From TrEMBL:
This enzyme's EC code(s): 2.7.7.79
Binding site for Mg(2+) 1: D29, G30, D76
Organism from which the protein derives: Trichoplax adhaerens
Keyword presence, Nucleotide-binding: yes
Protein name according to UniProt: tRNA(His) guanylyltransferase
Assembly with partners or alone: Homotetramer. Interacts with MFN1 and MFN2; functions as a guanyl-nucleotide exchange factor/GEF for MFN2 and also probably MFN1.
Length: 245
């Protein structure tokens, strides 16, 4: 097409290519999901339907963008790790982030009915960001940070909702009861007052969800599988040495 006299406006666009040789992480997070979860009557502290829907959307994103080697989901957030050599969209950060986030959001709406009987009351929003990590250690520390966050929040929420749902505490009283407690105190409280062994709670709640490509021997192709395992220690990384190679 011939150039028009207006074409110069394109020069105002800013280059945002991700630095070469870095891990590209796209993290998205639901906007005001505190409200969204209560309006849609999510089970507290953890609605497994919502977590499974998030994982379904995470899989949809990975299948569309096979340069993603790993996904990690917890609560209303998902992180996607693009391989260092990724050249999708010329590594343009805004292209990567918006394509991932919008496919995730539309999938959330599209697959909602597969997980919830109640209708979706309004369109959910997810924000997105891109972070670059230059070393494998930085990437592992990033994922450890998210999984530690999942653990800390889940231990708190499990204790909080046990006090409310089984201990008949009011919301402010439950908050007061937990104020200043460490993780040992919360484990002890769950066990002695509610006979809950925190370590026996479902792993999807305690560890979050790890999505990765595994060879499907029967179908002779790679599939995205979901695991709920520790990714902070070395075991996961030695068992999945292809990830960082
Ligand atoms: P922001 O817009 O800043 O992200 P937010 O309300 O989404 O605000 P978050 O810190 O992202 O706040 O927390 C998400 C909230 O969504 C949780 O605190 C929890 O109340 C709710 N939530 C998300 N997933 C679930 C789930 N599977 N089961 C129950 N509640 C959930
Ligand atoms: P990219 O992913 O690079 O954006 P694209 O296929 O979306 O690729 P665009 O340059 O964005 O390419 O063009 C959008 C195309 O979508 C148009 O060329 C046209 O074929 C089709 N399209 C969009 N809106 C309409 C419409 N209202 N009616 C018919 N065709 C449409
Ligand atoms: Mg927040
Ligand atoms: Mg949120
Ligand atoms: Mg969140
Ligand atoms: Mg287009």
């Amino acid at each position: 097409m011939a150039k028009s006299r207006y074409e110069y406006v394109k020069l105002f666009e800013q280059a945002d290519q991700c630095l070469r040789n870095c891990w590209i992480v796209v993290r998205l997070d639901g906007r005001c999901f505190h409200k969204f979860s209560s309006q849609h009557r999510f089970k507290k502290p953890n609605d497994d339907r919502a977590l499974n829907l998030m994982n379904h959307c995470g899989k949809a994103v990975m299948k569309e963008f096979p340069d993603i080697i790993l996904g990690y989901g917890q609560s209303d957030e998902f992180s996607f790790i693009f391989k260092k050599s990724c050249n999708l969209f010329g590594r343009r950060a805004s292209k990567l982030m918006t394509n991932v986030t919008s496919l995730f959001s539309s999938s959330y709406v599209f697959y909602w009915k597969n997980y919830f009987n109640d209708i979706l009351q309004y369109p959910p929003t997810f924000d997105g960001r891109v972070v670059l990590y230059p070393s494998d250690k930085n990437l592992r520390d990033y994922l450890s940070w998210r999984q530690a966050d999942c653990h800390i929040n889940n231990l708190y929420n499990t204790s909080f909702w046990a006090l409310v749902q089984q201990g008949q505490y009011s919301l402010p009283d439950a908050e007061k009861k937990l104020c200043g407690t460490d993780s040992g105190d919360k484990n002890e409280l769950l066990f002695s007052q509610f006979q809950i062994n925190y370590d026996k709670e479902p792993a999807i709640f305690r560890k979050g969800s790890i999505l990765l490509w595994k060879e499907n021997v029967v179908r002779k192709r790679k599939d995205v599988v979901v695991e709920h395992v520790d990714i902070i220690g070395d075991n996961f990384w030695t068992g999945n040495s292809q990830l960082l190679s």
